[in-house]
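Deliverable D4.2, example record:
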Amino acid sequence: MTPETLRARLLAWYDANARDLPWRVGPGDHAAGVRADPYRVWLSEVMLQQTTVPHAAPYFLKFTQRWPTVSDLAAEADEEVMAAWAGLGYYARARNLLACARAVARDHGGVFPDTEEGLRSLPGLGPYTAAAVGAIAFDLPTNVVDGNVERVMSRLFAAPTPLPEGKAELKALVGALVRDERPGDWAQALMDLGATICRPKAPLCERCPISEGCAAFAQGDPETYPRKAPKAARPRRHGVAYILTRGNEVALVRRPPKGLLGGMLALPTSDWRAGAWDEAEALAAAPMAADWRAVGEVEHVFTHFSLTLRLLRAEGNAEGLIWTPRAGLDALPSVFLKAARAGLSNLL
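Output generated by the structure prediction step:
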């Protein structure tokens, strides 16, 4: 199958099967001259990093209703945006989101740059996000490569090099298919094909518009692509989370602005380290002297490590803490929400 035939078949499939996503301008509207809003494209791409479409979509709708323009978002207080982000995870993205929005508002008059180089100059916009915004919002012939696109390319060409070593090879294969014609639709067509047809498990090859040219399909083993190098064992860390109550309120702290979960509300905790905490150490690290009682533990998995949090609970009062009604804990990051729910589960 020639590159031009492949492109024609995939674009025709996209015209008939494009996903209806809240941030997307469909191919019919696009053909009629409607252009995607760069703010909405950028916001969706940031939210979709390490997050599924069904999980990200409600957050996208909430953000765009509350902050309909990038300047609206730029003017908001950090803690308000971080609270609205709670539950999406990977909180450095929220900090980068604010930094970028403020740069666009401050340095570009609230208008996103319309070149890939200009987009790359914005805080937090790496090569992928700049390419995606450039293609989808500005019809630039950029090379947009996400995990879905990598999977499609690895199967189409039966690429033998395991990931992550093979990423550069796959990016070159995608780049060879980019044209000036419909670059935004082309990028989204590849993404949609990977998300709905060329799935990680049980790909629907019989429905694929380009299976005739797919080397992995011809071999009969598409699920074995992309090849992946063995994963290193994820290290485990241990910590203690302190659930201090005052009647129906729970004591929270705001984490430092830098680092993991930076700027987010959280339960007070000890440091997180390789070794477990004994009772004396756990009590010494508590936010105040109190009758601390063990109420279980929770497990949480981050990208680079697993965490065991021992839970201690006490009733008391202290200055310098953020007292929050139990009904308001849903805005906590998932690890602390999980710990709070477990630690409070036997209280009325």
